[in-house]
Amino acid sequence: MSRPPTFVPPAGARAYRLATARGGFAVVDAPAAPGVAVKGTALLLPGFTGSKEDFIGLHEPLAAAGYRTVAVDGRGQYETPGPADDEAPYAQEELARDVLAQAAAVGDGPLHLVGHSFGGLVARAAVLLEPDAFVSLTLMSSGPAEISPPQQQRVKLLRDVLAVMDMARVWEAIQALDTPEDADDLDAGLDDRADLRRRWLATSPAQLVAAGRQLCAEPDRVPALAALPLPKHVLSGERDDTWPVPLLDDMAVRLRARRTVVRGAEHSPNTDRPLETAEALAAFWDSVAV
């Protein structure tokens, strides 16, 4: 989904396995910059086919703004192991409880939660389970319910292919079919770069299938989320084929949320325009009274 410029953590950041009550999760953890007043911590959840590296460009500018950032591979994503043939561990509530365990293990507060795309669905599920675990929620390019019909067709095709082909063969098939105009689709980022191929091969196919089912069948949970006093932020690019921007505008109104549109960005403002995205995140977090 996202095309990170590199898979190498920035200076000062540390890649390690975060130990939690629900197992270990691979993270990239970047502290606030030296000499800067520490304002809080943010837990960053990646989207469909993504990983913690999707937030690489955000760490340094957010560190300079006084925020520690912890980007995580969810269960079955890239460097966090998960079952390859059992969807049960990837049920949305299970993933949400993983996030709550990660939040408890990160420790430093106040703790802000950010979910990109599919990660946004998981983030809001976690907040609905335990609202007091976080001081704010940012939904980044993540909509109110299921994804758009054209994207549902693509996800269903991927699920069908994963039922009959292994990950390596699916990768090769995607390379043969991918076109430049697909750059903002759900499988964008699956190009011939070795690091992206490595991420794809390390991702659990059961996680992809389960996540795909959720993306195609997610109910509208905006009313329940709107009922929480938690400060909310809806951030997106100015174009999005997964959840159209007018739908995100309307969701922000329904949530009474802060709304940010990052100019020049599409479905992944975190990689398309990381500096502008980091600036918007920090401004929102600065506005949250704790």
From TrEMBL:
Residues 43-280 form the AB hydrolase-1 domain. One of its GO terms (molecular function) is hydrolase activity. Keywords: Hydrolase. This is Alpha/beta hydrolase. Pfam families: Abhydrolase_6.
